[in-house]
Amino acid sequence: MNHITELGQHFGYPFCHGGTVKDPEFGDLRPCSDFVPPAQALGAHVAPLAIKFKSGNMFPASYNGKAFVAEHGSWNRSKKVGYRIMLADIRNGEVQGMEPFIDGWLNDQTQKVTGRPVDLLWMKDGSLLISDDYGDAIYRVTYSDTQVALN
């Protein structure tokens, strides 16, 4: 995840990936130290396809300033990663931490995949839609005082 703070910043592509990994083809042309490091490093191959900040009033104010990250997941690793929605706690432009918000589309033990989150959309009622191109589904996430529900 990158955070643009001024015009003209360069985050490394195609020379450097994730702030520290030299590209095999272009990495010798410029060192990673030439570029702005990521605000938050994400795991290799998690494929973050969507990042959206909380919108609406259904979720409590404690979710304000937090970013929801749809990790589509890896396809070319022996041990798969991603396949979840992560929640990034962002305060004063700095990522304070990340934690899973919704997971379960990947069974870590069996490596069986049942879904791959693609995009996120906040609805006018404050619920969150998650598209899944593996499960051919759209999930609606709602919040009440007693639970977060995935429909």
From TrEMBL:
Q: Which domain of life is it from?
A: Bacteria
Checking InterPro entries in the record gives: 6-blade_b-propeller_TolB-like, Beta-prop_PDH, Quinoprot_gluc/sorb_DH_b-prop
- The Pyrroloquinoline quinone-dependent pyranose dehydrogenase beta-propeller domain extends over 32-142
Q: Which Gene3D superfamilies match?
A: TolB, C-terminal domain
- Which Pfam families does the record associate with it? TrAA12
According to UniProt, the name of this protein is: Pyrroloquinoline quinone-dependent pyranose dehydrogenase beta-propeller domain-containing protein
